[in-house]
């Protein structure tokens, strides 16, 4: 693992830094999990795309600039360092795009990728169902063949679709063959949310934002070219998406380094009231973020050498999600009663982001596959332990 950056990488960092310093909104945008805030975030995404910074590692034909994985990490460090808005395109660019690059046809790539990168079409993940969360293979929503129209009729219900109420398209698994073993009869579909037969119902979150949606599908027709990969082989396509979600792409270290640095600054403001134990928590939070950063560089080095992440992404997922909770808890401990103030309150520190960040961090051990399930994966597939 080489931690020295070359001339090209340093120039790229400088370019990102200058653009972000000049363009990141001075006041934070409203939450991207509300209708109004989402619209503000989409405008920001369009600006980022116009500057060639929305999807730096993608091929040029889809709006990227063919940056290396290392340069992407640099971009992420600069992005979070600058306090830039959270990415409402993430379900598309970090989850769907890797799947399309690996399994999509040329026509699908042409049709979807550039619009996804330019925030012209916003994507939601439609995997979970009321009885299929951790056990994703027990998905009950169905797709039935419609030979006459050359496509499929979708029926069922998806739940917990992040920002589903504001999105244009979902991707998800549907049962195409109930006779086959659970994992084998599933197919991966792209479903426009404007299709006839779709009903969306918003679900409020703990923090009051209305970002979640339940999606009901009642005889929704989609043509054959809305399938990714092969019929009945959707499970294997879906597994490509999960390792992106748990692994590198969704949670680059830049994000956690930025929070850890913010925590150090908070400590400097409140250190007179802080106990030695609290000081140790601050130090630990920073060391954890740095350890995660170094681990990521090691992973990237491995990938650049032709390796892949695979089941190790579960280790990553447990680490970043638990670290995020601990870092925010420490921030709230430092702030004591001030931590409970709403962002609008005159005395709220760091725009009230510690409580909001804490509430979101609590969901980290649940989404992208719960940590209990990740521990099962680590035990069985990384350590090779028996199932029982
Ligand atoms: C903030 C947030 C955003 C989300 N966004 C999306 C989204 O955009 N799209 C989407 O499709 N879904 C989304 N989800 C849903 C998420 O993927 C599920 O909540 C998750 O997979 C867990 O499923 P479940 O809620 O049905 O819980 P269950 O699967 O019912 O699990 C309940 C508990 O039992 C434990 N458990 C279950 N099975 C086992 C086992 N074999 N061994 C040990 N423990 C077990 C689980 O770990 C958990 O603690 C989101 C969730 C959150 C919190």
Structure notes:
The protein has helices at residues 7-23, 35-50, 69-81, 90-103, 106-117, 234-246, 253-270, 276-304, 313-335, 353-361, 371-382; strands spanning 123-125, 142-146, 151-162, 169-175, 186-192, 198-203, 212-223, 227-228. Helix content is 45%, strand content 14%. A hairpin with an 8-residue loop joins strand 6 and strand 7 (212-223). With 388 residues, the chain is of the alpha+beta class. The structure holds flavin-adenine dinucleotide. Flavin-adenine dinucleotide is lined by residues 124-128, 133-134, 160-162, 363, 366-367, 369-370, 372-373, 376.
Summarize the structure.
45% of the residues lie in helices and 14% in strands. It has 388 residues and is α+β, with helices and mostly antiparallel strands.
Set out the fold topology.
Elements: H1 7-23, H2 35-50, H3 69-81, H4 90-103, H5 106-117, E1 123-125, E2 142-146, E3 151-162, E4 169-175, E5 186-192, E6 198-203, E7 212-223, E8 227-228, H6 234-246, H7 253-270, H8 276-304, H9 313-335, H10 353-361, H11 371-382
Helix pairs in contact: 1-3, 3-7, 4-5, 4-6, 7-8, 7-9, 8-9, 9-10, 9-11
Bound molecules: flavin-adenine dinucleotide.
């Amino acid at each position: 693992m080489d931690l020295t950056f070359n001339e090209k990488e340093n120039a790229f960092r400088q370019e990102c830094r200058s653009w972000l310093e000049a363009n990141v909104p001075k006041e934070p945008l409203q939450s991207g999990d509300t209708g109004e805030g989402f619209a503000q975030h989409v405008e920001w995404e369009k600006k980022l795309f116009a500057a060639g910074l929305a999807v730096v590692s993608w091929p040029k034909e889809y709006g990227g600039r063919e940056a290396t994985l290392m340069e992407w990490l640099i971009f992420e460090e600069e992005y979070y360092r600058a306090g830039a808005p959270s990415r409402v395109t993430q379900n598309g660019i970090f989850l769907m795009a890797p799947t399309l690059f690996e399994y999509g046809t040329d026509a699908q790539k042409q049709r979807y990728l550039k619009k996804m990168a330019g925030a012209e079409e916003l994507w939601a993940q439609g995997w979970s169902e009321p009885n299929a969360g951790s056990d994703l293979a027990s998905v009950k929503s169905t797709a039935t063949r419609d030979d006459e129209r050359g496509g499929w009729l979708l029926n069922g219900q998806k739940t917990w679709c992040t920002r589903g109420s504001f999105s244009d398209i979902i991707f998800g698994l549907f049962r195409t063959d109930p006779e086959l073993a659970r994992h084998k009869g599933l197919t991966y579909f792209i479903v426009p949310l404007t299709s006839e037969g779709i009903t969306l119902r918003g679900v409020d979150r703990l923090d009051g934002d209305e970002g979640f949606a339940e999606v009901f599908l009642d005889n929704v027709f989609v043509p054959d070219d809305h399938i990714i990969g092969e019929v009945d082989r959707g499970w294997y396509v879906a597994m490509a998406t999960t390792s992106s979600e748990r692994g590198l792409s969704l949670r680059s270290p830049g994000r956690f380094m930025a929070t850890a640095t913010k925590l150090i600054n908070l400590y400097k403001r409140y250190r007179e009231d802080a106990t030695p134990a609290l000081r140790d928590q601050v130090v630990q939070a920073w060391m954890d973020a740095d350890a995660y950063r170094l681990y990521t560089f090691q992973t990237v080095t491995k990938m650049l050498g032709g390796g892949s992440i695979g089941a190790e992404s579960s280790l990553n997922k447990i680490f970043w999600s638990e670290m995020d909770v601990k870092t925010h808890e420490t921030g709230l401990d430092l702030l004591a009663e001030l931590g409970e103030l709403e962002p609008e309150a005159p005395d709220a520190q760091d725009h009230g982001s510690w409580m909001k960040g804490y509430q979101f961090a609590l969901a980290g051990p649940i989404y992208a596959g719960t940590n209990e399930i990740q521990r099962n994966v680590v035990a069985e597939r990384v350590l090779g332990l028996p199932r029982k």
